[in-house]
Amino acid sequence: MAQVNGGNVVEMANIIKTFPGVRALDDVSFDVRQGEIHALVGKNGAGKSTLMSILTGLYPPDSGTIRVRGEVIDHMSTHRSQEAGISIVAQHARFVPGLSVAENLFMGQMPTVQGGFVDWRLLRKDANERLERLGLEIDVKKRMEEMSVAERQLIEIARALFADASVIILDEPTAPLPKHEVAMLFDFVRRQREAGASFIYISHYLEEVFEIADRVTVLRNGAEVDTVDVSELTQPDLIHMISGETVERYVRPRREGVGEPVLEISGLHRKRAYEDLHLTLHAGEVVGLTGLEGSGPGELARGLYALEPLGDGEVRLRGEPFHPSSPSNALEDGLAYLPRDRHGLGIVPIRSVSNNITMSVIGRLTHWLGMIDGGRETSLVDGFIGKLGIKTPSPATFVENLSGGNQQKVVVAKLAATEPRVLLLDEPTQGVDVQAKVEILRIVDQLADDGVAVAIVSDELLELIDTCDRIVVFYRGRIAREFIKGTDEMTPARLLAAIEGGAGEAAHAMA
What we know:
20 strands, alpha/beta, six-stranded mixed beta sheet, globular, single chain
């Protein structure tokens, strides 16, 4: 861990913030030193986002003090926050996809020549020079839509540094990233810390806190629990601070026997995605699909849900040929999909919990006159809120006002309402707190007990081991190995060997 370079850059003291009926922050203090990475953690709804919204000027505090480099800022606004060198890099980087890297870096400040035209040569030269000073080798002429998610995050951080930001808030920066890109992001952040930049790191991935952070502050129910040097903590200590209790890993009991085949895949192939896939999912079982990014599991899930081409080969659902033309067609046939990007594809944030749960089955709730049967709708929504433990003030609450874990439960409820025979879950616990992860995995178990065939696409190996009856490892578009629950072979080390080396290297590693 790097040595912290200087004194406090930001100090927030005794911050109180109340929304109608809720005290979101209760006398919270938080500081960031020069040249440090300070993690801010807590359950969904603990107050992290509210505290950062106050620091960046989106919300005014009811009371409390904010100092930046010793100067008290009485009325923080977004403009004053930026002037003070505070910037936020959100989980979903903000950029214009069709414009080049250089154009995105200098948005609103592009150099011009006489007549007001953009000086393209100078723009690209300056962009190259600035990125090189930060140790980044990126083709600035490429469009942003061509960059990987990690590269977009790096560019967003670089843009903040170019704007003289000295305190950068990283809000769940690794949630959309495969693991090899997380390492690239962390290397870059460490280099900027060594150069004197400060970072506030918000994440539910606690192992990353121990990898990247110098100190950690824990919030619980809007109050500060403690601020501790990471070197003085263990992960169980941190989990206990976050939850206020000991959170046990959820381990799904081994099931004896499986139901009938529900989804049968034979000889399926799609160019540059996967080839010669043979896979069967049975009623009542949970199957993990894992591998390196781009090795096939995610592509298969999206293909089965008609978000991407499915390819050629035989696929049968409940014994009938299955080749959906659209997601709605897949749902009608009994296959549902929870996307990795719940904000982009899973929920409608500005609609109510009730609307989100029922949108996929609204036809079933409609009278022949075209009116929705309010009683049936209420019964359905209340049933899922109770069964899945969705914490919401009311069914009429907009989903955007729920915590990340409860948003994820709403998506699961929406899919479960369709009564699917097959449920595909792509990183179902991504970006939710440790307690919500356990709750979501329990829900998966319940759905399997109801006879649903569940497939989980994930690279969280411990979660897959705890939850799945089988784990299928993909390597370069092919199924390399299959691991069965309850055997000595289903261990993180052996799974990782298969993921990184395919069947041959995995077998060699186990010899």
